[in-house]
Amino acid sequence: MPRLGTARHRAAGFGPLAGIGDEAAPGTDGQLAALRQLGWNAIELRTVDGTALADLSAAAFNTLTRRLADAGVTVIAVASRIGNWSRPVTGDLAVDLAELDVLAERCAALGCRLVRIMSYPNDGLTETEWADRVLARTAVLADRAERAGLVLVHENCAGWAGDRADRALRLLRGVGNPALRLLFDTGNGVPYGYRAPDMLEDLAPYVAHVHIKDAVRTPDGTTAYTLPGEGGAEVAACLRILASHGYTGALSLEPHLAVRPHDGLVRAGEDAGALFVRAGQALTRLLRTVEAAPAHPDGTA
């Protein structure tokens, strides 16, 4: 099994620095090249050549696993489509269960346990009906994940529990399964309209995976993504809160500078790779400030 990131690829007590590979390039070669430039040896998988991990042919998946092993790169998580912006709560749960079953086999081959999920956009249901369906579906998914040795990590993004800490906690308690934990993305508060450190203070004890991005709200109300530490997401404060709560998992870069699947943005080629590397370098610099300044209870320096 490929080894985890060495000590020089960790910071402030966190686990390995990693990234969602397709934010750097569509193909494996470009994804690995970006990691090499950063000196990182961990990756989060979402798509390869535009195809979701669960949809890769057996031959393509075998090639991918061989390339990762040859490069000494560890897979720290996979980003599924389960419950995401493209799958409303009224859709067929069998689609998500089928994807989870494929990912269980592929995670076993990759030596990975974390699978990113979301909590289903609404589709005309009342708030109560929406909540009930999300809780019921997630309980079924978590049970299936537990039996496969996986941990589902729910992201603060699309869906019923995506932008409210109270709902995320209700989801955890309602499902009541250790195979369900949280993924915290530092940048999602900007487009969804909340302050990330405030949400994280409530959720930090349950966070098992972290995505790093930063963003600003533009005058016309849209979101513009920036290098980590250069936007309004208060990434450094989030990192200090995580450190103060003893988080030791990976930090996975998802800069959204060249690739935003939900917006249909895909800028392939050298431009995407260069932006990904710049974002990784900015994260490394930001982590030095986190190490230098212990957190106060609110996450500030």
Question: Could you describe the 3D structure shown?
Answer:
This protein is of the alpha/beta class. It has a single domain (7-291), classed as TIM Barrel. The protein is built from nine helices and 14 strands. The protein has helices at 28-38, 58-71, 93-110, 127-147, 165-175, 189-192, 196-203, 235-244, 270-292, and strands spanning 17-19, 42-45, 47-48, 51-52, 74-79, 114-119, 151-159, 180-185, 207-212, 214-217, 223-226, 251-253, 259-260, 265-266. An eight-stranded parallel sheet has the order 1-12-9-8-7-6-5-2. A two-stranded antiparallel sheet has the order 3-4. The longest helix is centred in the last third of the chain and has 23 residues, at 270-292. The radius of gyration is 18 Å and the shape is globular. Residues 1-9 have low confidence and may be disordered.
What's the helix and strand layout?
Layout lengths: L16 E3 L8 H11 L3 E4 L1 E2 L2 E2 L5 H14 L2 E6 L13 H18 L3 E6 L7 H21 L3 E9 L5 H11 L4 E6 L3 H4 L3 H8 L3 E6 L1 E4 L5 E4 L8 H10 L6 E3 L5 E2 L4 E2 L3 H23 L9
